[in-house]
Amino acid sequence: DNHNAIGYRMKTITAGTIRECEIYPLFNRAQTAAIRRRRQKTTRKAQRDLNKRNAQKTLIRLLNANFTSADIWGTFTYNEKNLPDSPEAAHKVFRNYLRRLGYYMQRKGLGELKYVFVTEYIDKGEEIRIHHHVITNFPNRDIAEEKWRGGGRTQTRRLQPDEAGLEGLGRYITKNRGVTVKNNRLWAASHNLKRPKITVSDTAITRRQVQRICAFMTDTKEFIRRKNEAYSVTAVKIKYSDYVPGAYIYAKMRLNQ
Fold first, then answer.
1. How far apart are CA 178 and CA 133, in angstroms?
2. Fewest CB within a 10 Å sphere: which of 65, 67, 201, 216?
3. Which pTM value belongs to this model?
4. Looking at residue 106, what is its pLDDT?
């Protein structure tokens, strides 16, 4: 039911070799207020799930914009003796570890350390399990493992992007609720990461075009392909919301290389 929308916006997010396209309806002020009121009735769980999905999406885009197969990711655990007694303490231990890596790179003239990390702190009463996942541009896996002082197991690997870039890894490391202390976010990152490039257009697609291309998935793919000629379309979804009239189109692409 597209006639309720005053137009459609096309938002393009480019992160490394991955590009996403979001097409969604625009509304006037009164319609927007009514939609907001309907959304406020959503359950807390639904809101938490939405927040987690959005946090994952942001993380995946950061990974794709900053890391390649030249970089590494690792998992670091603790032995009983070194186990931190709180999420805050675990967070501090890992921050200090990353400082050691950064100092090493600085001393060797290897540039600035970049990283994204997730801390999982699981308290089961009698048993506390803590581990960290990190994605980083640190160049040497052996030294990265050697500089960990938490005891426990360490495992580092080269990154292996696929047609969705590093999406699979981003979802894997946030599968449980990681605790990174600051604002209880799912993950933490260095301040020197590149942000994905975002462009927005309210004239790239009309209501009539949306109606027409939603009728056939092949038409949707062809429309997206024509708008992004340097890319191959890897996924397309068309959704309709319980709260908002109109269609929502999402497409994912990979740069042709």
1. 10
2. 216
3. 0.85
4. 97
